[in-house]
């Protein structure tokens, strides 16, 4: 155990003195003129450390590429693409139109001959009220599926689509039955309707439209007869059975698909919504009739995105060129030297663009300019007239090419910056590991009986340090005390009588 005794009370608070010591060491006030020169030399050496220099280069390159990627991602973002598309229907009462990102400019002539509809069946009997008179009690088993029809109301078989759902009916009023059905999630919807004479009926409809979305209702009637025209069995509905003997509801609407043509080609769908017209465009069918659907890509947005792509590319290449032109940091870094050349190549590449003949940026007015010096990054310029001509000839192709090029450039840049497997990330981690290894190797323990140079210098040339304040002297003394724990026997001759507040009588002592 270490013990210290006999030192001034001004040194009794380690926490308060340590900052003073730190300040002295960092400022160089503990050093004489020769030591100050040594400090400056050490600082310069540290600044010139090749690993630290390379880490700085990689950090700057990472920042440039991250900014580049952010700009590119804005260009091909779904929101950006969607905002650049306009769509209209010449007859909005017949069909509405919606678009998604990537929609292509086109015109569609849509003719609707039949809307999709759900099967509906209504009770043949009526009641004077919906909430007090009971139809009957028991249970209903509802199954959704499709009939093999032999006529509009008769079928030879029924094929289930889903598992049958059995519903207990204890409140046999029309309202009670409708509530029980709707709460069971059986694939049908029940409604109590009031007819023209003021009487009430129960109507049951399929939850989905389409020719294959029919339903069957079988009854377990508490009166013992499940198919007759009395009690709960009046709600039985099975079109493979005879009307009035198991097919007791009356079909009021058959299930059917929507039928239409798009540019003369026939189509059919179980739903009226989301009918695909072409890539990225769909229609909702609202009524029979015809409508011309027009989808267009906005040239102003295309031009803006082209300018943004060129600006992002040029900014990135300019930043990298600045690194490469600084011969002290990047000229010998293989990664920094490779990135601009790969970006140059990508900007001049041919891109896959579906059936469009537009495959290179130069075809849409984004022209590549070679750098003034080999190995540096080039630039892009935008020729608006060429861009307009490409848009007029193939607007969808022009837009898609721009998005594709932005995505390709982003992918290239991202291969360097992705956390976990990016080239820059991996090299940075390797350099940091090497730096830590070097630091551990260089931080050797101080050799016993050898006092640090800065304190040695102070004690040897006290006159050169006469300007030290009392606070600085206290910090220096604290430095000496801490050091004494490691080499107590080397202090006596050096500290006694040097004006550090330690008496020559041996009042200071340190034992290990």
Give the low-pLDDT segments.
Answer: 1-47, 444-466, 482-512
Helix content: 25-40%
Q: Number of DSSP strands?
A: 22
What separation lies between the terminal Cα atoms? 6 Å
Strand content: 15-25%
Strand order of the largest sheet: 2-19-4-15-16
Helix count from the secondary structure assignment? 12
- The chain-level mean pLDDT equals 80
Query: What sort of overall outline do the alpha carbons produce when their principal axes are compared?
Result: elongated
Instruction: Outline the biggest β-sheet.
Output: 5 strands, antiparallel
Structural class: alpha+beta
Give the radius of gyration: 43 Å
How many separate structural domains? 4
General description of the model:
This protein has 512 residues and is α+β, with helices and mostly antiparallel strands. A hairpin with a 2-residue loop joins β17 and β18. It contains 12 helices and 22 strands. The protein is 38% helix and 24% strand. The chain is elongated. The protein starts with a strand and ends with a strand. It has a 5-stranded antiparallel sheet. It folds into 4 domains: 3-49 and 441-511, no CATH class; 52-80 and 299-427, no CATH class; 85-116 and 257-297, no CATH class; 120-253, no CATH class.
């Amino acid at each position: 155990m270490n013990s210290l005794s006999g030192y001034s009370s001004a040194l009794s608070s380690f926490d308060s003195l340590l900052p003073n010591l730190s300040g002295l060491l960092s400022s160089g006030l503990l050093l004489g003129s020769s030591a100050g020169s040594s400090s400056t030399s050490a600082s310069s050496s540290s600044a010139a450390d090749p690993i630290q220099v390379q880490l700085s280069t990689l950090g700057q390159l990472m920042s440039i590429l991250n900014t580049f990627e952010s700009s590119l991602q804005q260009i091909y973002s779904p929101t950006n693409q969607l905002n650049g598309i306009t769509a209209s229907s010449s007859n909005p009462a017949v069909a509405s139109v919606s678009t998604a990102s990537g929609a292509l400019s086109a015109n569609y002539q849509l003719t609707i001959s039949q809307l999709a509809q759900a099967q509906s069946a209504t009770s043949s009997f009526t009641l004077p009220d919906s909430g007090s008179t009971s139809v009957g009690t028991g249970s209903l088993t509802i199954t959704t599926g499709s009939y093999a029809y032999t006529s509009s109301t008769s079928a030879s078989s029924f094929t289930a689509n889903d598992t049958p759902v059995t519903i207990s009916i204890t409140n046999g009023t029309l309202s009670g039955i409708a509530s029980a059905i709707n709460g069971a999630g059986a694939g049908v919807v029940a409604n109590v309707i009031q007819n023209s004479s003021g009487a009430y009926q129960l109507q049951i409809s399929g939850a989905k439209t389409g020719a294959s979305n029919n339903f069957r209702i079988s009854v377990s009637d508490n009166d013992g007869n499940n198919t007759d025209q009395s009690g709960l069995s009046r709600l039985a509905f099975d079109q493979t059975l005879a009307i009035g003997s198991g097919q007791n509801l009356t079909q009021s609407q058959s299930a059917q698909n929507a039928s239409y043509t798009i540019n003369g080609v026939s189509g059919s769908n179980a739903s009226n919504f989301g009918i695909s017209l072409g890539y990225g465009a769909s229609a909702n069918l609202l009524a029979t009739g015809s409508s011309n659907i027009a989808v267009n890509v906005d040239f102003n947005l295309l031009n803006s995105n082209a300018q943004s792509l060129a600006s992002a590319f040029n900014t990135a290449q300019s930043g990298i060129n600045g690194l490469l032109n600084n011969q002290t940091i990047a000229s010998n870094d293989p990664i920094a030297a490779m990135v601009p050349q790969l970006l140059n190549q990508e900007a001049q590449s041919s891109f896959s663009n579906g059936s469009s003949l537009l495959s290179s940026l130069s075809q849409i007015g984004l022209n590549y300019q070679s750098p003034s010096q080999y190995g540096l990054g080039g630039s892009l310029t935008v020729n608006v007239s060429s861009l307009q001509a490409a848009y007029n000839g193939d607007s969808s192709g022009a837009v898609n090419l721009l998005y594709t090029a932005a995505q390709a450039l982003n992918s290239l840049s991202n291969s360097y910056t992705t956390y976990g497997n990016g080239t820059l990330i991996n090299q940075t981690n390797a350099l940091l590991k090497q730096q830590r290894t070097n630091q551990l190797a260089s931080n050797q323990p101080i050799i016993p009986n050898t006092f640090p140079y800065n304190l040695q210098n102070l004690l040897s040339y006290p006159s050169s340090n006469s300007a030290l304040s009392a606070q600085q002297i206290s910090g220096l003394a604290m430095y000496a005390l801490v050091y004494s724990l490691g080499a107590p026997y080397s202090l006596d001759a050096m500290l006694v009588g040097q004006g550090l507040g330690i008496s020559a009588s041996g009042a200071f002592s340190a034992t290990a």
